[in-house]
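User: My instructor asked us to take a sequence, write out its structure as tokens, and then describe one feature of it. I'm not sure where to start. Here is the sequence I was given:
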Amino acid sequence: SGHWAEASISRWSGYGVVQGDQNGNFNPDQPITRGSMATVMVNLLGLSEKPAENPYADLTGSEWYADAVLKCTAAGVMQGDGSNCNAGANITRQEATVMFARALGVEEDASPNLSKFSDGGDVAGWAAGAVSAMADRGIITGAGDGRVLPNQNIDRASTMALLDKAISTYIVKGGSYEAKDSGITLVKAGDVTISGSADTILLAAGAADITATLASDTYADTVILMGGNETLVLSTGANVGKVEVREAASG
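Assistant: Let's start with the prediction itself. The structure tokens for your sequence are:
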């Protein structure tokens, strides 16, 4: 209560995307681990598929975060270092940004421009495209002093704030909804009808049997089908700039 991120924390805990500890504390200023971030992404997207084999040498499968790590790996949201997933390590701001971009279908910039940040040159080459794209969309704005602090660990509160900036409308049950002009409309439910004007409508990678109908007055710049099995219905008069189908990494 009273924390700068209280509203964001309340929003996403209300959806069950994030939980506190066994003592009922959220610990907003504590860093978040890679395993915990994987759990947030699984809850957010409803991921359910896992790879046929565990690709990580440092993951036995019995850890509390093992299922989440494997589901994020199958969806292409999380990758290890070639051998390990390092799920117990704290996640840096640039690592978190890359995971968010993959989860939300934000394409990396082919020619990243990080000149708006005084420390943009510190961003690793493998993260620059995602950081640039997320900054272009206004999802990440830096630390308030012109720096992006790519190698600093991100805390739990800032993770919730990122979710808030990225997702303007979060749909978790069937019904009719009006999209907002900015941000991502993320659909994680079936039998949904969307009206209004939307920047991006994202049909979540892990939600099965999604049928999203765009009403006759709906405009969307981009609609992304992340799992490849979703159904998009365009009513007469609905206007969509482009539709993208992106299958999960597991195929």
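For the description part of your assignment, you could build on this observation: The helical segments are 6-14, 34-45, 66-74, 93-103, 125-136, 156-166. Try explaining in your own words what that tells you about the chain.
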